[in-house]
Amino acid sequence: MLKMLPGPARRSSEEQDVGSLLRGVSGVRWGELCDATGAAASGIPPLLSRIAYGDGDTARIAIDDLGDAVCALGFVVGEVTAPTVPFLLELAGSPRVSCKAELLDLLGSIYRTDQWHSAAASTQDRKHDASYQQQIGWEAAARAAVYTGRSVIEGVASSVRPEEAMPARKLLQVMDDTPPFPEL
């Protein structure tokens, strides 16, 4: 009896996709970044991995935990948010990942965030305005990162699966309807 040996030539396209997900994660200096709560961001790569390779329940829990780290309370981003967004988009666009709706909801929360811009605008012409400069940069970078992935979101919006397409269309609508940040 001939025994089939596993090898690169015998891998399905889905198995190849699994091996290529999140390749760039190791290129980010996570330990030098802080999350939206001010904690070290070194826990983000394992959460991304659980989303990519875990079962549905594991992935949903990881998305919830990741949401706390990159968009605390659903409206506060941190310095790690923008570097995390490309991986969220990669996962949302992957045929292997099952929790697209949750990923798209998180991306929508990140895109809508304007907490720091609003705070800075309300203190304009006051001495505290300068203290918001770093945070408003995080918000702008995070929103720009989500917008850069618009083609991925449009691809998911064209899915024949309504559970994927509807949240993607909702995110596209959020992107179209969200006003620009206030002038500071």
Biggest sheet strand line-up: 1-2
Low-confidence stretches: 1-18
Q: Biggest sheet, in brief?
A: 2 strands, antiparallel
**Residue share in helix:** 55-70%
What fraction of residues sit in β-strands?
A: under 5%
Give the mean pLDDT.
Answer: 86
Tell me the distance between the termini.
Answer: 74 Å
- Count the helices. How many? 9
Number of strands: 2
The backbone outline, from C-alpha atoms, is: globular
Q: What is the N-to-C succession of helices and strands?
A: HHHEEHHHHHH
Cα radius of gyration in angstroms: 18 Å
How would you classify the helix and strand content by structural class? mainly alpha
Explain this structure to me?
The structure is a single chain. A two-stranded antiparallel ribbon has the order 1-2. α4 (81-93) packs parallel to α8. Mean pLDDT is 86; it is low at 1-18. Helix content is 58%, strand content 2%. The protein is mostly helical.
List keywords for this structure.
184 residues, mainly alpha, disordered N terminus
Provide a brief overview of the structure.
The protein has 184 residues and is mainly α. It contains 9 helices and 2 strands, in the order αααββαααααα.
